[in-house]
Specification:
This protein is an all-alpha fold. A two-stranded parallel sheet has the order 1-2. Helix 5 packs antiparallel against helix 6 and helix 14 packs across helix 15.
């Protein structure tokens, strides 16, 4: 019996093996790097305001720079669906590290904005391409669970950036540049790991491009000869049509694309707006020691992600989506309408808001990938992330401006309205993707 006649199981039914762990670690390191780079911008540019005499407009714009770059996720997703996942993941962190260091060489707001946008594009590769590669390699029973845990590592990077911003001191007028450039450390570690422990290509993507023999060899090499492509991919004929962004807005995918982008954008508007410029918001809330309140907020974010991981397979996707958005909005409303502005009540509601909203972050990676099939997954996920980054960049840009115009209450009111819109939209239109 030759190799072609050997009965083979679907490689997605294989047990968790070394190749899966290697890809997962490559993605975990990337998530830490991305979280750190996004979080450090608020601290760095808030401090830069003292030396560069930046207006609220420029502080918000520079803080949102990486999130504006992340809006290029649709471009990166389309590129990944055209040329594959592996090559992009092998180079993006080297470019990321170089861009981090370049921030030491300029004080021009325009150049800094361009650098932050470019960093955002590199992050977009990890978000879009990395998640597609991971879900296309992981065993089916492991994919959702492992993906939902990625946000935990992203949060580690994000929270570490807050403490790094506090600890990096004593460099005078260049302190803010060193704070921003510190993202070179996690990104370079990630790049070196991916070069040493090489990330394989996606068998599913290869098969979708007509390279079934190469895909089979890859599976045999990393998982074993008992496993191969699933029958639907073996029968698949390469579609001569190129995948375009219009595909994810056709009748088949339109609802999924819009609702995926809506939930993600509304969540990101509040989370990034409040988290990145936390020092500015805390001053307006008058909760006492700003550093202590910031530590509490970040501790609640970590706790919230752990709560979300515990709830991930216990709640339906729709219930989780709707619940976390509406509860987070309610917590902000209570803070705003608190007549006596009692610090204990405000602090408690702010902690609840932090835990509830960050619990919903565990949906950010698995839910969008579950909305789309292999053929359009990277393009679909990239489009959803692009929509979400419009929300994230808007929140980050507007928070300093809104706080300056109407104080912290106005900023939180706008965040509450956006969360309410997302919650109601998901209540009526979000498709259920929970495993049967």
């Amino acid at each position: 019996m030759n190799e072609q006649q050997i009965p083979q199981k679907n490689y997605k039914e294989a047990p968790f093996k070394t190749v899966h762990r290697r890809i997962l670690i490559a993605l975990i390191l990337g998530q830490i790097s991305c979280g750190y780079a996004l979080g450090i911008s608020g601290t760095g540019f808030s401090l830069a305001q003292n030396y560069l005499h930046l207006t609220d407009f420029w502080v918000g714009l520079l803080g949102a720079g990486s999130l504006i770059g992340l809006a290029g996720s649709a471009v990166m997703g389309k590129l990944a669906d055209s040329i594959g996942r592996r090559g992009l993941l092998m180079i993006n962190m080297y470019i990321f590290a170089a861009l981090s260091l370049v921030q030491l060489l300029t004080t021009s707001p325009w150049l800094l904005l361009l650098i932050r946008i470019a960093i955002g594009l590199m992050i977009a590769i990890d978000y879009t391409v990395g998640n597609s590669l991971l879900v296309e390699w992981l065993p089916e029973q492991e994919a959702g669970k492992r993906q939902s845990r990625l946000i935990f590592y992203w949060t580690i990077g994000f929270v570490c950036s807050y403490f790094a911003g506090i600890l990096i001191q004593g460099f005078g007028s260049t302190t803010w540049q060193i704070i921003l450039a510190s993202s070179v450390v996690p990104s370079l570690i990630t790049a070196l790991y991916r070069s040493i422990c090489r990330v394989p290509a996606s068998p599913s993507w290869l098969a979708s491009q007509g390279q079934k023999e190469r895909a089979q060899r890859l599976i045999h090499k990393h998982i074993g000869r008992r496993f191969g492509l699933p029958k639907q991919l073996l029968r698949l004929k390469r579609d001569p049509e190129k995948i375009t962004w219009r595909v994810v807005f056709n009748k088949q995918y339109r609802r999924r694309t819009i609702i995926g982008g809506l939930f993600y954008a509304c969540q990101a508007f509040a989370f990034f707006g409040i988290s990145i410029f936390l020092p500015i918001l805390l001053k307006g809330l008058n909760l006492g020691n700003d550093h202590l309140s910031g530590v509490m907020y970040n501790a609640c974010v970590m706790a919230g992600v752990l709560v979300g991981m515990a709830l991930f397979n216990r709640l339906s996707r729709r219930a989780f989506l709707v619940g976390h958005l509406l509860l987070a909005a309610l917590a902000l409303v209570i803070i705003i309408v608190n007549p006596a502005h009692q610090p204990v009540l405000q602090l408690g509601c702010f902690a609840i808001f932090s835990v509830v909203l960050s619990a919903g972050l565990v949906l950010d990676y698995p839910y969008p990938t579950e909305l789309f099939d292999i053929k359009v997954r990277a393009t679909g996920v990239g489009t959803v992330i692009t929509i979400s980054r419009i929300g994230a960049a808007s929140g980050t840009f507007l928070l300093p401006v809104l706080t300056n115009i109407g104080g912290s209450n106005l900023a939180m009111l706008v965040c509450a309205i956006i969360l309410l819109i997302g919650g109601v939209g998901c209540l009526f239109f979000a498709p259920e993707t929970s495993p049967k």
